[in-house]
Each structure stands twice: as C-alpha cells, then as structure tokens.
Amino acid sequence: MGLPEVSSEQKDQQKDPQKEAEDSSFSLSEKKAIPEHKISGMRGQMTRKLLEAKAASQESSSSASSSASSEIICKLMSQKRWHQRTMWTVNHIEGTKLRMNRRRKPSYRPEDLEAFYRLLEDPIIQSFLEADTFLKVSDKYLLSMVVEYFGRVQLPGSLYNRIHFFLALYIASDMEEDSPTSKRSIFQFLLGKEHWTELYKEFLKLKMEFFHAMEYQAWVTQELCEEIQAQNPHHWVWSRERQCAP
Known about the structure:
This protein has one domain. With about 250 residues, it is mainly alpha-helical. Strand 1 and strand 2 form a beta hairpin. Mean pLDDT is about 75; it is low at about 1-15, about 20-45 and about 55-85. The longest helix is centred in the C-terminal third of the chain and has 18 residues, at about 195-215. It starts with 16 loop residues before the first helix and ends in a 16-residue tail after the last helix. About 45% of the residues lie in helices and about 5% in strands. It has a two-stranded antiparallel sheet with strand order 1-2. It is built from ten helices and two strands, in the order H-H-H-E-E-H-H-H-H-H-H-H. The chain has helices at about 15-25, 45-50, 65-75, 110-120, 125-130, 140-155, 160-175, 180-190, 195-215, 220-230, and strands at about 85-95, 95-105.
C-alpha cells in the first residue's frame, strides 16, 4: 500500500457532500492554515479541539489560532527523526547463516498507550466502537495503528484527545481498508449526523495536518501491531478481532 497522492485544487463546491467525502479520503491537498472565519460556525468544543494541539486539556476554554497549529506542525517536522529510526531483525537461520530484515523502530511510547486507553473511556469513542459491530473500521489492528501514530506525532501523551483519536483512525483506515462508507461513519459520530456534511472538509484539512506531522509515514506492520497489543494482552479492546466480512 503506497502513500496517498497529492490532489489538485479543491473541486467545485456544487458536488454532492457524501461523494466528495469519499473522493477526498486519499487526497493530499496543499497544507494551509485554516482561516478563523471558516470555522466560526462550528460548535464551541469542536472548534477549540480542532485548533489546539497544545491545549492544556480536552476541556480548555481558550481559543487557539491557526498559526499556533502550524507552529506545532513545523516544530514536529524539524525533528527529522525518521531517517535513522531503523533496526535489524533476524528473519531466517539456515546453518551458520543469518538472513536479516531491516525495519523501522517502533515510535510509540508508554504515554501513547496510556493516552489511547484513556480515550477509550470517552463516551463518543465508546459509542462509535459499539456501533461498528462488524469491526470494519475499528478492529484491533486499526486501533493498534492509532497508538503507533500517536508516537510518530510525538505530542505529550496527556494532550491527545478525541479529535486526535479519530484523525489517526481515519488515516489507518485509508491505509488498510477500502470502504468509504465505513470511514464516513467517523464523520457522523464525531461531527454529528446533522452537521457532518458542513464540517467534514475541516476534518480532512486537519487529517492532512496530522499526516504531515507524521512525515507521511503511515505504514505499520502486523508485527508492530501485535507488539502493541502484547503490552496489555488482556485489555478488552484487543478482543476486537474481525471474523468475517459480511
């Protein structure tokens, strides 16, 4: 699975919102700060969380500017940590010969796991997981990818919130699944069934901010997912194993 291709200019606003949401899931539009006037109509808590990557907590009442969000992304990008995050592992032993594979080191930290388990107690996230009865967008492997993505973004674990969870899960679904309808359910739970068609474009812009902070490194191996699950193998979330595709 390769990285998404960069899309052209935003297409005619006359398009059907649902179709545009499906077509936009893999687009990489040019990174721009979100003007304040474009989000003035969003609900209070949603507006704050979408723009405050450095907020003191999920329930902070302060309003962050779009420039603050861009500053955080630039700071994360300046670390340039990916070029050296590799390691060698033994793949096969034959006689006295070893065959070794080179793979990327895990990025997740204990605080990323703690943030992930904390967010599983969020009522909106719980409702979303309960509604995904066939685990099309939230099986244990996609959820493991959320943990690794938190580590790649490298925010303090205490700052991750509901928005970050769904941004990471959406990118994981982009990488591993081919079900636009299932991904669209994220919009409906996070933004509201009545308002998601008005707000999903802002979510997709923030998805690109999050993806940019990861340096577009979205690939996660099955082995790494299983390593993440093994840190707390008896937690209920790791029982979300997809049995079949209805």
